[in-house]
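Action item from last meeting closed. Structure (380 res):
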């Protein structure tokens, strides 16, 4: 029997589950060195991985889609699109770290709605990274797996995403939200206690094709903003270094569009910290107000919302049993996240389903999610 240098025998199969995420507040702040407040949820991807005895042949089956894909681990490159890029991207990033990955067969399925803004892609990346690490005893820590998953998205999928989704999927903890400082990568967990209220997601069931190109555009607009501000103040290396006062004092020296983008990021960072205090102080009312402010900032300053998201948020404003509502994730579709009184969910969903269908011709989908642990092996 083969024995590894650490005295264990090689594993031949692994089953891993990796969750989607919500984000209470802190949108488009992660790639600006800012703060986010996500949590992992009870929607997940499950991956079964096994060695296939070949030196460098991989076959992956996407059960939900009834699709299968094989590639040579020593010779592969990104496709024009598709889930295959998440798989190859993760393998590529781990290989860059000198991972010795042999032939494998993988099969995955899940219940995270694709395009729903709950990070189905991060869950897929993290499940594969974690499973490969376990089965081939690669010895990476969770941060290396998170980074490799994020870089898969940059280099194989073409989205220059931040770290939030992969972090939340990998590091989630049952019933806890996480405050992550995307600059220092320090994080802390604390319970999500909303008293008489709960989280409700409403999926617009729309995912606009604009999402990826506009995402990268926003990122470069922020970089443009940093470059402008840096000229006058060389210590500024990211939008995290900018205060609202500083920004306002530079208002006349930058394009209006860039001003609005930065205004969102700087004010959103402030809101994340205020929201954290509101949660810790058992103050869901204040949290709700910040959540609304976040939406309007994403809608007007950052311009990443959509008519469907705005409509769903508008439908909550006259309901005194809803404290806050906003678009969640990258934008241009996906879900809203709502803080709603327990016991009024069915009433609200009934109402909003009718008005939404009258407006757009189809229903939104509600999800009452629970907060769960991050990526790990499936307990048998
Ligand atoms: C997507 C990205 C994240 C983050 C959000 C917006 O989900 O993957 O890194 O930037 O959008 O907050």
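Sequence:
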């Amino acid at each position: 029997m083969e024995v590894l240098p650490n005295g264990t025998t090689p594993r031949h199969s692994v089953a891993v589950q990796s969750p989607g995420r919500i984000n209470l507040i802190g949108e488009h702040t992660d790639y600006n060195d800012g703060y986010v407040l996500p949590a992992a949820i009870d929607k997940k991807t499950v991956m079964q991985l096994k060695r296939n005895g070949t030196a460098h042949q991989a076959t992956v089956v996407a059960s939900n889609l009834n699709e299968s894909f094989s590639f040579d681990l020593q010779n592969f490159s990104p496709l024009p699109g598709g889930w295959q890029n998440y798989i190859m991207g993760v393998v590529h990033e781990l290989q860059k770290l000198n991972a010795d990955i042999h032939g494998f067969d993988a099969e995955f399925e899940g219940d995270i709605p694709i395009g729903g803004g709950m990070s189905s892609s991060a869950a897929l990346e993290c499940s594969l990274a974690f499973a490969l690490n376990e089965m081939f005893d690669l010895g990476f820590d969770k941060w290396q797996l998170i980074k490799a998953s994020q870089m898969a998205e940059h280099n194989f999928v073409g989205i220059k995403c931040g770290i939030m989704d992969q972090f939340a999927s990998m590091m989630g903890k049952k019933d806890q939200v996480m405050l992550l400082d995307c600059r220092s990568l320090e994080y802390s967990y604390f319970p999500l206690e909303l008293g008489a209220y709960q989280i409700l997601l409403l999926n617009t069931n729309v995912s606009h094709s604009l999402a990826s190109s506009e995402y990268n555009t926003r990122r470069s607009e922020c970089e443009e903003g940093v470059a402008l501000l840096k000229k006058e103040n060389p210590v500024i290396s990211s939008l995290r270094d900018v205060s609202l006062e500083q920004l306002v004092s530079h208002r006349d020296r930058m394009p209006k569009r860039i001003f609005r983008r930065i205004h969102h990021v700087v004010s959103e960072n402030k809101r994340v910290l205020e929201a954290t205090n509101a949660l810790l102080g058992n103050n869901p009312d204040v949290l709700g107000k910040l959540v609304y402010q976040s939406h309007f900032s994403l809608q007007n300053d950052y311009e990443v919302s959509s008519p469907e998201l705005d409509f769903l948020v508008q439908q909550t404003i006259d309901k005194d049993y809803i404290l806050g509502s906003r678009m969640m994730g990258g934008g241009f579709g996906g879900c809203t996240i709502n803080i709603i009184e327990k016991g009024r969910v069915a009433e609200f969903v009934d109402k909003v389903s009718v008005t939404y269908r009258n407006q757009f011709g189809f229903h939104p989908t509600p999800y009452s999610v629970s907060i769960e642990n991050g990526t790990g092996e499936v307990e048998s």
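Note appended to the action item: The two ends are 25 Å apart (CA to CA).
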